[in-house]
C-alpha cells in the first residue's frame, strides 16, 4: 500500500457571491515536493492557497495535512509558513526581531537568539540582524520574510508570488536561493505564480489552472512537451497553431495542431525533408541573444497558422549564416514528430 499524500486537497469549491473562484479542485502533494500553482490572473490560485492556509474557508471539500483534516482549523494551528508578494515585515522591528516574532511562545526563550542567527546565516544575511526593513533592499527584505516563514520549521510552506515585486536580476538569483533553501530544509512547498518561466525553472510539478479548475498537472517537461490542451500549449511557452486538417488530411477543421518555434526547421536549398518545405517571407526579426525569433509569412496562404504568421526560433549562428533579415525569403519545415 502506498503511503497517504502529505498534503491533500479534495473536492474544494469556493464562490464569492455569484462568482465561482474554485470549481471542484483536488490535489495531492508529496513530502518535500515543490509545487507551483500556475495560471492566468483570476483563475483561483490565490484562493486555493488561502484555503490551504486557513485564511479562507471552502464552501465544499477539505484540506488534509499529513492525514489530519485541517479544514476547520485557524491558520495558527496548521503548522504553515507563508510568504506573500509584499514583504510584509514589521517596519518598526529589526530583521532579527522580525524573524524572532514567529518563534515567541513556540521555542524556549533561551534558544530564540540561536535560531534567529541560524536563519540569518541560511539566507546569507548574517550581518543584517540589527537592520530595519527600510535599510534593506527589496531582495533582502524578501529573504528576511522567507527566514521568518521557515524559522518555525513549518510542515508546509505557502508562497504567493514571493518574487514578483523584485527586479529581474534579483528575482533570478532568489529563485535559485529559494529552491536550494527548500531542498536543504526538505520543505514541502506550494508556490503561486503567474510567471511560466518561474514555474518551469523552479517546480518539481506544475499545477496549471484556468477558470477555477486544474487543467493539467505534471513535471515542467511533461507540461511543456505534452500540453493537454491548446490553452496549456499557449500558456506555457510560445506556440504556433495550425488547423489539423492541413497536416492529417482529415476534414475536422476544428482540431488544432501545435508546434513550438524552436522545433521548426529552416531548410537549406536542395535539402530533403519528409514533407515539402514551406516558402516564407520574413516579416519581423527579434534578437534574443542565443537565438533570433522571426515571424514569417507563408507565400501560400494555405500554410498560414491560425494567427497568420508563423513564429520560428533560429539559433544565432545559423541566422547569421542565413543573413536573416526582414523581407528576405526562407523555407521552413515542421517535423511531424514535433507536432503536438
Ligand atoms: P491573480 O494572479 O490575479 O492574483 P488568482 O488566480 O490568484 O489571480 P484569485 O485571487 O484566487 O485569482 O481570484 C479568483 C477569482 O475570485 C477572481 O475573479 C477574484 O476576483 C475573485 N475573488 C477572490 N477573492 C475574492 C473576495 N474576497 N471577494 C470577491 N471576489 C473574490
UniProtKB/TrEMBL annotation:
<keyword id="KW-1003">Cell membrane</keyword>
<dbReference type="GO" id="GO:0016887">
    <property type="term" value="F:ATP hydrolysis activity"/>
</dbReference>
<comment type="subunit">
    <text>The complex is composed of two ATP-binding proteins (OpuCA), two transmembrane proteins (OpuCB and OpuCD) and a solute-binding protein (OpuCC).</text>
</comment>
<dbReference type="InterPro" id="IPR003439">
    <property type="entry name" value="ABC_transporter-like_ATP-bd"/>
</dbReference>
<dbReference type="InterPro" id="IPR013611">
    <property type="entry name" value="Transp-assoc_OB_typ2"/>
</dbReference>
<keyword id="KW-0547">Nucleotide-binding</keyword>
<dbReference type="InterPro" id="IPR050093">
    <property type="entry name" value="ABC_SmlMolc_Importer"/>
</dbReference>
<dbReference type="InterPro" id="IPR027417">
    <property type="entry name" value="P-loop_NTPase"/>
</dbReference>
<dbReference type="GO" id="GO:0015418">
    <property type="term" value="F:ABC-type quaternary ammonium compound transporting activity"/>
</dbReference>
<dbReference type="Pfam" id="PF08402">
    <property type="entry name" value="TOBE_2"/>
</dbReference>
<keyword id="KW-0472">Membrane</keyword>
<keyword id="KW-0067">ATP-binding</keyword>
<keyword id="KW-0997">Cell inner membrane</keyword>
<dbReference type="InterPro" id="IPR017871">
    <property type="entry name" value="ABC_transporter-like_CS"/>
</dbReference>
<feature type="domain" description="ABC transporter">
    <location>
        <begin position="7"/>
        <end position="236"/>
    </location>
</feature>
<keyword id="KW-1278">Translocase</keyword>
<dbReference type="InterPro" id="IPR003593">
    <property type="entry name" value="AAA+_ATPase"/>
</dbReference>
<protein>
    <recommendedName>
        <fullName>Carnitine transport ATP-binding protein OpuCA</fullName>
        <ecNumber>7.6.2.9</ecNumber>
    </recommendedName>
</protein>
<keyword id="KW-0813">Transport</keyword>
<dbReference type="GO" id="GO:0005524">
    <property type="term" value="F:ATP binding"/>
</dbReference>
<dbReference type="Pfam" id="PF00005">
    <property type="entry name" value="ABC_tran"/>
</dbReference>
<dbReference type="GO" id="GO:0043190">
    <property type="term" value="C:ATP-binding cassette (ABC) transporter complex"/>
</dbReference>
<dbReference type="InterPro" id="IPR008995">
    <property type="entry name" value="Mo/tungstate-bd_C_term_dom"/>
</dbReference>
